[in-house]
Each structure stands twice: as C-alpha cells, then as structure tokens.
Amino acid sequence: MPHDLTSLDHLDQEQLWDARAAASYDTPGTGMEAPDVLGPTVDRLADLAGDGRVLELAVGTGRVGIPLARRGISVTGIEISRHMIARLREKVSDADLPVVQGDMASTRVPGEFSLVYLVYNTIGNLLTQDAQVECFRNAAAHLRPGGRFVIELWVPQLQQGAPGVPALVGAVEDGYLLVDTLDTATQRLMSHHVRFGEGRSATVGRSPHRYVWPSELDLMARLAGMALESRDADWRGAPFTSESGSHVSVYRTASDV
C-alpha cells in the first residue's frame, strides 16, 4: 500500500478540519453552495422531515443546516471540529441552530428526531467499517419510530482504474485537480487536492477516506435496525442505475403502527 494512504491516520478529524479548512470551506453561490446543488438538497430534506425535529451529523459550517432551519424546521447539529462550529456561529446563533461538539459515530443528543441526515460523502471520513457501522447505530438511536436516516455518497468508480494503477483522477477543473490514491484491500483512499495559484505556484491538501459500496451501506442499516426505503441518483430523484456516480439513500426505522 502506498505510504501516503496511512500518513494522515494519526490525525483525528478535528485536526484535519482545522481553522484553515473551516475558513475555506464555504463557497457562497458556487460549488456545493450553488443554487442548483443546494436547493434540491434542502427541498428533499424538508419534505422528508415533515413537522418533526431534524439532526444533521457533521453539520460543518451550516451549508445545509442553516437554510433548512430558515424554513422553520427545528435543526440540531453534531460536529467534531470546533473550528467549523466557530464558522457556523458567525452566521447563526445557538438558539437558531444548536450544535453539540462530538463524533458523529457516538455523540448523543437528547430527544427523538424524525430525520437524521449525513450529506456529501461525509460517512467516508470514518476510516473503518466498525466506525461506519456505529454511525448507523447512532443515527438509529436518535430516530423516533418510523424515522428516516438519509445518506448522500459517491459510488466508487474502480472500473476506471487500469490493473496496477494505484490512483484515479477525480476532478479536473480550472485551477483545481483531484487525484485519489487507493487500496482496494482496505477500501481506503487518500484524496490529493491540488489548487493552482499564480504562475507555477500550487498548494496540496490531503484527506483520508474509506469508500463504501451501496450494498454495504444497506447491511449496515440492517445491523442498526433500519431498512432501505429508497435510493436515487441525486436529490431530484433521478433513477439510480449502474452508471450512477452517486446516490441519495433513505433508510427507515420500523414503525409502531
């Protein structure tokens, strides 16, 4: 396994999501916060929440939680990085969106919720299968009977890599290059984010992840007492097929009725 797949393992998530990461995370009006990306996300989550309380795991700087709360929905967040929480607090108060600092796989928030959600590939930040299973169990423990857990995640595109080639190009954009080095035996990868500046200057950021297959997520849900209710290719409800590069999966707990 290439050395750099494990070189960041000693860092915890709060160290990875430090002040510099928090300061550069928001992209108002573009990228993850472009209206055509954020709008359908918030619309779908609001519909799934109904009139119940909502919990966002890894709420970050409030990209999704804040617009959802502004629709009158009661949103609470769990976030491990104090730097991300501080950035969120620049935008909304604790009364508008309370946040508990802690690990999304183990931190508990009082009360029951109709919806728990985890967006934008974030379950991959948990680097072992055991931790990801515990995340499902933690989500289920927060849900009322009949409540839903929603995960947005990319589908591993390993067929794009030739045998013996240990890296995949994830994105090529103006001023940005993403290269993932991976180990298929452990389902671990290291994302290398290269951002180009003036002239020959460039900065490189790296983050470790564990990729998860949709069927593996379904088994994790069963272990936590949930079942798959629906799977779409995106937040607008496009059909999920073998060609889909990502999915939005909705799991549901058993109802008392």
Automatic annotation (TrEMBL):
Residues 54-147 form the Methyltransferase domain. One of its GO terms (molecular function) is methyltransferase activity. The keyword Transferase applies. Keywords: Methyltransferase, S-adenosyl-L-methionine, Transferase. It holds the Pfam family Methyltransf_25. The keyword rRNA-binding does not apply. InterPro entries: Methyltransf_25, SAM-dependent_MTases_sf. It comes from the Bacteria. One of its GO terms (biological process) is methylation. This is Methyltransferase domain-containing protein. It comes from Arsenicicoccus cauae.
